[in-house]
Design a protein that fits this description.
Layout (H helix, E strand, L loop, with lengths): L3 H9 L5 H11 L8 H12 L10 H34 L7 H8 L20 H12 L15 E4 L9 E4 L13 H17 L1
Helix pairs in contact: 1-2, 2-4, 3-4, 4-6
Length: 202
């Protein structure tokens, strides 16, 4: 099975058939897709200026989409490397019990679904790398009460998500499932109450 870098070379290779180049970009999302496969594809297509179903997109637009994906992947891999080094030091120092960030991180190793968007058509507008930088910054500071990506204040709890964990707080503004470790207990409780209010009003 081809790795991310091998697939990226095919996307950039002008000697490759255009259909193969598009297919290779889609396959890259099996290795790294911060919003999940479908939402990340929709995001990249939107930002690069070609349709998700376009079978013959401008090759330059394909490469632009790949550039954005690669930058975001570099940001995430750097974070994962620093995370692994920190855990190694903590274990050396006798801290064996992982925290809530570690539990969340274990579910997102490799970068798939780190900012999961359950609705593939609702996702942040900013470049992927910027979204990940904001998310990482939130993971490295004290928990807050708003979405770390868009600073949206409206979070609601959703169940039956198509990703692990299968339930959690979703930002109603940018669409991401907000990692629980970045939110205070009060913010998590408010998200659950917001869901309850929606159910009552329905």
């Amino acid at each position: 099975m081809a790795g991310f870098r091998s697939l990226a070379r095919q996307v950039r290779d002008p000697s490759c058939d255009l259909a193969l180049r598009r297919y290779s970009l889609r396959k890259c999302l099996e290795r790294f897709a911060p919003y999940g496969h479908r939402a990340t594809w929709d995001h990249l297509c939107s930002r690069a200026g070609f349709g998700p179903e376009d079978r013959s997109p401008d090759p330059a637009r394909l490469v632009a989409a790949l550039d954005e994906l690669e930058e975001a992947r570099s940001v995430w891999l750097t974070y994962e490397e620093e995370f692994a080094q920190r855990r190694k030091k903590e274990k050396h120092d006798g801290l064996r019990r992982p925290g809530s960030v570690d539990d969340w991180h274990r579910l997102t190793w490799g970068g798939f679904g780190v900012a999961w968007c359950d609705d593939p058509y609702v996702h942040p507008d900013e470049p992927l790398a910027e979204v990940l930088r904001r998310l990482i910054a939130a993971l490295e500071r004290e928990p807050g009460s708003v979405c770390p990506v868009c600073e949206g204040e409206h979070l609601t709890w959703k169940y039956d998500l198509a990703h692990e964990p299968s339930s959690g707080p979703v930002c109603t503004e940018c669409g991401i499932v907000v990692p629980r470790p970045v939110l205070t207990r009060e913010a998590l409780a408010n998200a659950r109450r917001a869901r309850a209010r929606l159910l009552v009003s329905a």
